[in-house]
User: Fold this.
Amino acid sequence: MFFDTHAHINFKEFKDDGDKIVKKTLESGVCFINVGAEYKTSKRAIEYASRYTEGVFAAVGLHPSHIWIEEFFIEKYRELALNKKVVAIGEIGLDYYRIDKNQEKTKEKQKEIFKKQIELALELDKPIIIHCRDAHDDVLEILNSYFKIHKSKLRGIAHSFLGNYKQARKYRQMGFKIAFNGIITFARDYDKVILDTPIEDIVLETDCPYLTPVPYRGKRNEPLYVIEVAKKIAELKNLSLEKVAKETTKNAKKIFNL
Ligand SMILES: [Zn+2]
Assistant:
């Protein structure tokens, strides 16, 4: 059994065949979390999860790249997060990769909304799914300020981890798991952090429809392809595929309380 901790069947790329993909995924023994990036996709993540008795979960949150498109109202997200299918607040975080003008203003706004969502997660006792691009130092600083007070109540995963092994260690010291996806099948830049991170601290994801792994490059990504990510980790760490499947699924279930 495999657990894809970050999928977006709730995105428009799956509007015509989303449920077909979900059924195929579940029949193949893969569970997954549909992760929201704004109110609309967060709500849709819950709708998907509600149609299945097991194996499909939801996360709700406002992505840092959407903060100027949607005004953040915590009450709206709290209402969504109270649904029993919601296992995490996410994806939330900081993304400095694409911001151009008004850099400082955008960074400040992203930080403010990130903090509000961390506080929502703490209030509801849920883990967080962190999106971070080119902003690990700021994300770690914010997490640390909450970790000092809340300790293990603050928990979650660093999604699509693109940082270095030292940064990964800092997340792990605060109890966070590190999530890898298809990028590791076609870029060798992450081998070192994968080798440095014990399997007990790794979870798998696809981030579908994006980041399709080898050998499906060029096709739309989907949760089933999480197995390719597992194969690469098994190869790099010299572990059996069964061991990687078992450990990463166990880690995901633990962090999301399933
Ligand atoms: Zn995502």
Q: What stands out?
A: The first strand starts at residue 2 and ends at 7. Residues 47 and 254 are 24 Å apart (CA to CA). The pocket of zinc ion is lined by residues 6, 8, 35, 91, 207 (CB under 6 Å).
